[in-house]
TrEMBL record:
Gene3D superfamilies: 6.10.250.2080, secretion proteins EscU (3.40.1690.10). It is a multi-pass membrane protein. NCBIfam families: flhB. The keyword Calcium does not apply. Keywords: Bacterial flagellum biogenesis, Bacterial flagellum protein export, Cell membrane, Cell projection, Cilium, Flagellum, Membrane, Protein transport, Transmembrane, Transmembrane helix, Transport. InterPro entries: FlhB, T3SS_substrate_exporter, T3SS_substrate_exporter_C. Signal peptide: none annotated. The chain crosses the membrane at residues 38-58, 97-122, 143-170, 190-216. Belongs to the type III secretion exporter family. It comes from Ornithinibacillus xuwenensis. This is Flagellar biosynthetic protein FlhB. It is found in: Cell membrane. Required for formation of the rod structure in the basal body of the flagellar apparatus. Together with FliI and FliH, may constitute the export apparatus of flagellin. The keyword Protein transport applies.
């Protein structure tokens, strides 16, 4: 009894890698190995590169918008029409400034996801599920090992990014103190450059951490995808079908095939036997084939049934042991007689035709 329980326990233990079928089913549900840190790092990196390349363009457009606002818009009469026009023109200018960043953010997000999981579109995660608002399941997630790992990971990111930020500020501390003696444009240019250096450095560090996070996400995903030996057996049954049902279907197919074969026996020209164990029903119809062909064959019980049906329908039976055995092993039902048996079968058919003419 104890041994049986132990075997059941090990059979239910999830130690096997997930099958392709399960992976495909989970992927359709949106369950894939993905690191959000990779998405964040790519988004920040692309956005910072864009700001480094088009920073002056964005600054010029922003200054032009402020200048136009404080020289033109401030003198306009406040009416419904002017407010709408200010809003429309201001929105268009802001779109020109932030539009490239929004576009690059979308491109970076799509690219990072394609790199990790390829193309995947599913609405399964959007479906309403009561388990998602189950307080017990929520508490389990909060106090799970994964939650602890995420907490430590977040703490590590704060420490690393904080250290990088502090280091860069410390490097430029003397220049920052001297900004009090510079004009606004020089100060703005300096702080923009320092912010860009700080952002790119922090993003590179975040990208480095994202590689480890992606490796962990893959490990955790594979661990959660594991299957027990019983799961694999059940999946095989569902895929291939229950062996009992399959055997019944095959048995049914054999019965149908047997009935079809037996229905052709009355149309045969001759039954070649050995005489008790083998029976081969042969027919020659020049409109259907260029040579005689087998319409039925069988051994033992089936051979007996073939002879019985042949006798009931006045189909001649001829004993030829070597020919019966050779035809049974060489020719399938519906196939034409091979060339090496032409002479032997022709002699049998000639004998049958002579006997039928005498009758």
């Amino acid at each position: 009894m104890q041994l049986k329980l132990d075997l059941q326990f090990f059979a239910g233990e999830k130690t096997e890698k997930a099958t392709p079928k399960k992976r495909n089913e989970e992927r359709k549900k949106g369950k894939v190995a993905k690191s959000q840190d990779v998405n964040t790092a790519f988004l920040l990196l692309f956005a910072l590169i864009l700001m480094a390349v088009f920073g002056s363009f964005m600054k010029d457009n922003m200054l032009a918008l402020f200048q136009h606002s404080f020289t033109e818009y401030i003198n306009w009469e406040l009416t419904e029409k002017t407010v709408f026009q200010i809003f429309l023109e201001g929105s268009m200018e802001l779109l020109k400034i932030v539009g490239p960043i929004m576009l690059i953010a979308v491109i970076a997000g799509v690219a990072s996801n394609l790199m990790q999981i390829g193309f995947l579109f599913t609405t399964e995660p959007l479906k309403f599920d009561l388990k998602k608002i189950d307080p017990i399941q929520g508490a389990k997630r909060i106090f799970s090992l994964r939650a602890l790992v995420e907490l430590l990971k977040s703490f590590l990111k704060i420490v690393v990014i904080g250290a990088i930020t502090f280091t860069i500020i410390w490097m430029f501390k003397d220049d920052m103190l001297m900004m009090a003696f510079k004009n606004a444009e020089s100060a703005l240019s300096f702080f923009g450059r320092v912010t860009l250096i700080m952002g790119i450095s922090a993003t590179v560090a975040l990208l480095f951490l994202a590689i480890f996070d992606y490796a962990y996400q893959r490990y955790d995903f594979e661990k959660n995808m594991r299957m027990s030996k019983q799961d694999i057996k059940d999946e095989y049954k569902n895929t291939e079908g229950d062996p009992l049902i399959k055997s019944k279907i095959k048995e049914k197919q054999r019965q149908i095939s047997m009935r079809r074969m037996m229905s052709e026996i009355p149309n045969a020209d001759v039954i070649i036997t050995n005489p008790t164990h083998y029976a081969i029903a042969v027919k020659y119809d020049e409109n259907k084939a260029s040579a005689p062909y087998v319409v039925g064959k069988g051994v033992d019980h089936i051979a007996f049934k073939i002879r019985e049906i042949a006798k009931a329908n006045n189909v001649m039976t001829v004993e030829n042991r070597p020919l019966a055995r050779s035809l049974y092993s060489s020719v399938e039902i519906g196939d034409v007689i091979p060339e090496e048996f032409y002479q032997a079968v022709a002699e049998v058919l000639a004998y049958v035709y002579r006997m039928e003419k005498k009758v």
